[in-house]
Design brief:
This protein has about 270 residues and is of the alpha/beta class. It is built from ten helices and ten strands. The strands form two sheets. Strands 3-4-5-6-7-8-9-10 form an eight-stranded parallel β-sheet. This is 2,5-diketo-D-gluconic acid reductase.
């Protein structure tokens, strides 16, 4: 099942090695999707204030017959929110939406606002991070991290703050292995979470992917998600389809080093 194995963050918190992503799942569909994920063994649920589905993600977890400490919940500080007090306020909103007393992982969603990608928000990120350090020390968050951060963005936090980010959630899939960033994160013991492991579905009809998946008697989606694990990253597949939700967690196979190398040579299908 999806919760058989874990990654260990550098402060000792264990995180299930496959997460259920809820990006682009509307609030009205989130309850059923998260319930299905929990029914199929997922114990790691990823959401964000910006997804506008925290209420039903939280309700699904509360209504399911599972204790809070057995579910790993991640949410994120909206990308446009930069600063100390506003971070504390946004965290309070997330906790209220989810109906929980604490988060297992809280991430800065991006180093810049989505409508101004590349903007230098270093000072704002540092202030937000210091607020998250406070929440961490108070026990309101078990682990803190970032998302979509490049090396320079992470280094700025390391240079100015007390706690090195414990996770960095980035787009990672066949054709986009982000080797330099992955190596940087490894050097700093930062777990890399792989969102969009299926390249938002665009890679699943690739003939070579289909052929290799058939070789292992798995689906193209399973091959793509397993690829993330082979690189030591934590995949966050998303689906609202019951069969695919189950399928995405069934990864009890390995890809040979030779085939991993072939997959590494793919070009980014989404860049074309």
């Amino acid at each position: 099942m999806a919760n058989d194995r874990v990654f260990t963050l550098h402060k000792g918190v264990e995180i299930p090695d496959i997460g259920f992503g809820t990006w682009q799942i509307p609030n009205e569909e989130a309850y059923a999707a998260v319930t299905t994920a929990l029914e199929n063994g997922y114990t790691h649920i990823d959401t964000a204030l910006a997804y506008q589905n925290e209420e039903n993600v939280g309700k699904a977890i509360q209504d399911f017959n599972i204790s809070r400490e057995k579910v790993f919940i991640t949410s994120k500080l909206p990308a446009q929110i930069k600063g100390y007090d506003v971070t504390l306020e946004a965290f309070g909103e997330t906790i209220s939406n989810l109906g929980v007393d604490y988060l297992d992982l809280y991430l800065i969603h991006a180093p810049w606002p989505w409508d101004d990608i590349g903007k230098d928000c270093t000072e704002g990120n540092i202030e937000s991070w210091k607020a998250m350090e406070k929440l961490y020390k108070e026990g309101k968050i078990r682990a803190i991290g970032v998302s979509n951060f490049a090396e320079k963005d992470i280094q700025a936090l390391i240079d100015a703050c007390e706690i090195v980010p414990m996770a960095n959630q980035i787009p990672f899939y066949i054709g986009r292995d982000q080797a330099s960033l992955l190596q940087f994160c490894r050097q700093h013991h930062i777990v890399v979470e792989a969102y969009s492991p299926l390249a938002t579905g665009q890679i699943l009809n690739n003939a070579e992917i289909k052929e290799m998946a058939a070789k292992y008697d798995v689906t193209p989606a399973q091959l793509c998600i397993r690829y993330c694990l082979e690189h030591g990253t934590l995949p966050l597949p998303k689906s609202t389809n019951k069969e695919r939700i189950l399928e995405n967690s069934q990864l009890d196979f390995t890809i040979s080093p030779e085939d991993v190398q072939k997959l590494d040579a793919f070009e980014d299908i989404r860049a074309k």
